[in-house]
Amino acid sequence: MHQSNFRVVGFTDRPSLEQVAEVARGHGLPLVDDLGSGNLLPSNSLLLGDEPSARESLAAGSDLDCFSGDKLLGGPQAGIVVGRAEHVERLRRHPLQRALRADKLTLAALEGTLALYLDPARACAEIPVLRMVDEPTEVVHARAERLAGLTGGTVEETVARVGGGALPLVELESFACAVEESLAARLRRAEPPVVGVVRDGRLLLDCRTLSDAEVDEVAAAVRACRSR
Fold first, then answer.
1. What domains, with CATH codes, occur in the chain?
2. Is there a contact between 40 and 73 (Cβ–Cβ < 8 Å)?
3. Which residues contact 93 (CB under 8 A, 6 or more apart)?
4. pTM for the complete prediction?
5. In this model, does residue 115 exceed pLDDT 70?
6. What's the gap between Cα 156 and its chain centre?
7. Using CA atoms, how far apart are residues 206 and 9, in angstroms rounded to an integer?
8. Who has greater pLDDT, 175 or 13?
9. In this predicted structure, what is the pLDDT of residue 164?
10. pLDDT tens, residue by residue, 154-181
11. What is the 3-state secondary structure (H, E, C) of 68-115?
């Protein structure tokens, strides 16, 4: 089981997946690798560090991999199982499968997301979580300046984290638009809600988590909350 949202540091050791697979084969047991976050890009791509990919896990000897359709994969919330056909078929034929299977809308959203991975560059540009991880800091800074200009806030350097069940130790250089702390609760209750980080008496709106198209909407929410 991969440590998706925590790390054990210090004097620790663990066998490689290849070693575990060899032991499993020696005992005639199938090996199931719970990858957690669902990374489909090669390890060390972008800023994903040592986050394992499904392809690498299967190549190392795993018989079945399971991972999320959301998180790093960037699709709808779902569970995905890939691997040797005979094991996947046993799961498909299990009576619980009918109760746990994804609905048609989830499958359609998942298919649309997976189609983007046929072109990894396109996936990195169009899947929000991958775009946010890979976006150059100068682009984030420009977005923060634009939001600050629309709201009367100030630009502050900050640190973003991937979070969401993956890469717990990875920190990303980022920039935020800082506004008054008193807006925090009102913005959370706004429509749509705007969630920031309260730090040192200011509310930081991290612009790595915004798209260019959302800047005007966030600025309008800030102005509306100030007027109330």
1. 17-130 (3.40.640.10), 135-227 (3.90.1150.180)
2. yes
3. none
4. 0.79
5. yes
6. 24
7. 29
8. 175
9. 64
10. 999 999 888 766 777 778 899 999 999 9
11. ECCCCCCCCCCEEEEECHHHHHHHHHCCHHHHHCCCHHHHHHHHHHHH
